[in-house]
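WARN retry 2 of 3 for item q-0093 after timeout on previous attempt; input resubmitted unchanged.
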Amino acid sequence: MAQYDYDLITIGGGSGGVRASRLAGRYGAKVAVVEELRVGGTCVLRGCVPKKLLVYGSHLPDEIEDMRGYGWSVEGVRHDWKALIAAKERELDRLHGIYMNLLSGAGNDVLDGRGVVADPHTVEVASKRYTTERILVATGGWPSLPDVPGIEHAITSNEALELPERPQRIAVVGSGYIAVEFVGIFHGYGSETHLIFRADKVLRGFDEDVREALNLEIEKKGIHLHAETLPSRIEKAANCILVHLTDGEVLEVDAVMYATGRRPNTKGIGLVEAGVALTATGAVKVDEWSRSSVPSIWAIGDVTDRINLTPVALAEGQAFAETEFNNNPTSPDHENVPSAVFSQPPIGSVGLSEADAEKKYGALDVYISGFRPMKYTMTENTERGMMKLIVDRASQKVVGAHMVGVDSAEIIQGVAIAVKMGATKADFDRTIGIHPTAAEEFVTMREKRPEPEERAAAE
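OK item q-0093 returned
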């Protein structure tokens, strides 16, 4: 007779949890996945996928305008927001179905309800208890809202993806990737947009040249930037929402969206009571194998607050399944993880920022190039891009690659392979470029940026 009901119970049916569960099932484990909303998680239902679909559509007004430069004339264009949201929901339903099929195909059970850890080998779902040899926590994160008077009038990215009507005027609070992506989305569909943030430029933590390039392009598009200020209070008026800023300005808008951070989903699911150690922000503390302080409980994805990206959660889930159910000890690799920001223009990045590379390596060779995308040369579009390579001077290894501009995410994915393999600047230089493309710039940059003292002397 089996000691436990299951070999594994996974709490959370997002990308990481589904990957770990279905692989464990394929390796012969008896697995149950617990999900209180819909299988698919943040990325599929409330994040990457629906957001990217809205980004695609928001680009079209600019592309229609650019068509004039190529001799096309388009009249009578209009947009139906309700049709957009309905189409997006149909796609999410399709993806949810695929995820459910993946789980059933691996022999996994799906338990509907909120999973609560009752003890290190028991999970309670809808007042019923299930025993298990291992528990995997993959509950992700959730948008957090600050304690600001009137915050009940604000929405988060969750609600922004389901608005029945497009707000004519919207204020987005924050300067991270979610904030800059959504402000670009709403601006693209025609809303008057305001971006409010505490820092001097957007995307704190990114490479400084990336931040500067994106900040300039966002402003050029007509998005109103309110730097070094924050809402002091939010007030619901008769026909609008009033956002009172700490610099004294008052904005009249139809919606306020906060994108100032996400918190790990660990509250109220029994982890502390079971002895699982959490960080000050509520993330599950894990070792290199994603094991928590309780030997029978593991955690992967955003709930651990390591690198909060879907492909990282997938890799962590796969490593867990390989280690625990396939006799193939594997720890997730968090070094040189590429990422993208689907701002307008978009950003692609892999490796270190210049500031972080300088701290780690000291002397650097930096190559940087600004350009106007070829597709805009016959249009009135003034958007410009930027590419940057950061090289450790001693070894000549490329330790950072960054791009702002059209197709940056697609281009950086390929560059990331080279950076991951430890390619040197000479390796990049020996590679023949594909002409005419923007990507070829990464293998044709030859002039190093002068040292700060040289630049100062030249000025």
